[in-house]
Amino acid sequence: MTRRFGALRAVAGVSLSLVPGEIVGLVGPNGAGKTTLLRLLAGTLRPDGGSITVAGHPPGTSAARRTLGFAPDGAVFPPTLTVREVLDYYARLHTAGPQRRALAAAALELGALDEVSGRRAASLSRGYVQRLAFAQAALGGRQILLLDETLAGLDPAQRRRLCDQLVTLAATGVAVLLSSHDLAAVERVAARVLILARGRVVREGATAVLLRERVLEIVLDAPPRRPPPGFRVTAFGLETDLGGGTVEAALALCRAHRLAVRASRVRLKSLEDVVLESLDDDAAR
Length: 285
Prior knowledge:
Distance between the termini: 22 Å
Low-confidence stretches: none
Radius of gyration: 22 Å
Mean pLDDT: 92
Order of helices and strands: EEEHHEHHHEHEHEEHEEEHEH
C-alpha cells in the first residue's frame, strides 16, 4: 500500500499481514510512516495505491470496525465525561442493558483504570489517556488491535502490566500491531518486528532471529585513537559484531593495535542495535 501527502510519500509500498495470536512490533524514527500506516489499516485514511482488507472486509466499514480496535497516540475523549462514562459510551455501541455495564467494567480492569474511573477525561495525564485509549480499543472483544505509542507516558510498573495484558490477549487469538519507541518493551512482547524508514520496511523478521547475533563488548584502559577495522567506539571502549569470528581473534586484533583490554563480554544484539544498524544501512544506500 502507498500513501502520499502532496510531494511527501509517507507510506511507500508496505506489505503487511497480521496473524491471529501474534504481536507485531512496528518501530522506526519519527516521520517513518508508522502512524500513517496504522491509520490506513484502521480506515481513517485511504491509500493512494494497493489494497487493504480487515478480516476480509474493507477498512472503515461496519464489519471491519466490529473486528478491529484502534488506539491512536494522544487520543481525545469528551472532556466532561468521566473515565467510566467514556467506556460506558463506547460499550453502548456494542450492546445494551447489563451486558453494556459488564463490557465497561471489563475495559476498566483491562486498562487498570479503576482508581481513576470517576475522574474526568480532561484531567488525565498522558499515561492514563493512553491506557484509556487501549481499553476502548479492546472493548467488545476486538480480534485486531492497532496501538500507536500506547506504552508512552507509562511508568515502569504500568508498562510491565500493559505488556502482560498484550501477551494475555494474544494468547486468546487477538492480533496486535504495536507501534512504539520503547524498543525494550517491543523486544519483550513482539514475536515479529517491522522496521520502517522513509515510508518503507527496511528490515523485518522474527524477533528471536533478529536478535541471535553476538556482540563483543571490550573495556579499554584508555579511549582508542582509531578503532580497528570492524570495531565501533563506545563509552566504555569498543564493540564489534562477532558474526562467524571468535572472541580470541577479536581480542588479538585489539592487542595488535596496542590497545590495553581491561575486560570483555559477549552479549546478544538488542532490538536497539538492530534498529540503528538497519537505519544506518538504509541511509547509506
